[in-house]
Amino acid sequence: MKERSLAILKPDCLEKKVQGKVIQHILDAGFEIKGMKLMQLTEDSAKKFYEVHKERPFYGELVAYMTSGPVIPICMEKENAVADFRKLIGATNPANADEGTIRKMYADSIERNIVHGSDSPENAKNEIAHFFNEKDLV
Ligand code: CMP
């Protein structure tokens, strides 16, 4: 059964101009892109998106970083999308990411880690709704 997940290509991805390469990895791995946009996150929107982390010591920096430049949220679909996308991107800290994963190839640090991926199908639904109206998905 098809499942959806949300990716966000983060400001460091666009700064490094590797967004085209990362999108190609996503397509090569068999994900279908249902929605995608280039946008600047507001502070309110980033705070809300990362609300689950609000008690963490890195929350303020995370919000500042995610609003430091444009991002590309992508709604993707395939069987087992959530788990398969997390495998494709690798561990949150690129130092621990497996060879061949997107974060191993392109990321510098746990904060500047190129891409976000939903961590459960339920969170994926909420995260997709944060950025997209169902009627705008193809
Ligand atoms: P992401 O998958 O977008 O979800 C939460 C983000 O918080 C994570 O990627 C990291 O970029 C960031 N993050 C997680 N742990 C830390 C940490 N210890 N220090 C700084 N940033 C972190």
Word description of this protein:
This protein has 138 residues and is an alpha+beta fold. It has a single domain, classed as Nucleoside diphosphate kinase-like domain (Alpha-Beta Plaits). 40% of the residues lie in helices and 17% in strands. It has a four-stranded antiparallel beta sheet, sandwiched between helices. The longest helix is centred in the last third of the chain and has 11 residues. The model has no long low-confidence stretch (mean pLDDT 98). The site of adenosine-3',5'-cyclic-monophosphate (CMP) has 8 residues, from loops.
Structural class: alpha+beta
End-to-end gap: 18 Å
Hey, roughly how much beta strand do the residues contain?
15-25%
* Relevant CATH superfamily: Nucleoside diphosphate kinase-like domain
SSE pattern, N- to C-terminal: EHHEHHEHHEH
> Radius of gyration in whole Å, from Cα?
14 Å
If you consult CATH, what is the topology? Alpha-Beta Plaits
What compounds sit in this structure?
A: adenosine-3',5'-cyclic-monophosphate
Strand arrangement in the largest pleated sheet: 2-3-1-4
Uncertain spans: none
